[in-house]
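User: Please predict the structure of the protein below. I'd like the answer in structure-token form so I can feed it into my own downstream comparison script.

Assistant: Understood. Taking the following sequence of 182 residues as input:
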Amino acid sequence: MKNIVKILFLSFLISNSTMAQNFICQSGETSFFSETPLENIAALNKTVTSVLNISTNEIAVKMTMTEFKFKNHLMEEHFNENYMESSKFPNGVFKGKINEAIDWKKNGVYDVTAKGTLTMHGVPKERILKGKITIEGDKLTLVSDFNVPLVDHKIDVPTLVVAKIAENISVKNKFVFTPLKK
């Protein structure tokens, strides 16, 4: 986990900031849901890492695709081998910037949007994601819900099972950030 944090900082967030301005979440949750008349598919990943730089409003999120857990092991296997090709594209990443000016020292709930690049299945796509940030002292909680069209990330669904997998996947995130300490 430490290596992931180092990579995120080195490649993205060490701009001109100090460590006190960086917040981290090492056990964020990302879930997805596919609803069709024939079958519902759901999975949860509880090991998502995210870093937030409150001086620049930059945010980075990284998840390992094989950490998504399904109720049905066969679904998990198909997800990793056939759809996400997790051995070839092991991570999903979002790098962006929160658009709104937020008083990070003031407790409250703030509607936010983040503009950035979502890379899934090796395919980057510009996105604007909506969410809510709750500030409670030095704890920041970010929740967001959005849809991912499979076609945007070149995720192919075989004709044989096309009726069992939705074209748009509902994604939910929850990240609880605390100040990064050396």
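That's the full token string. Confidence is low (pLDDT under 50) at residues 5-19.
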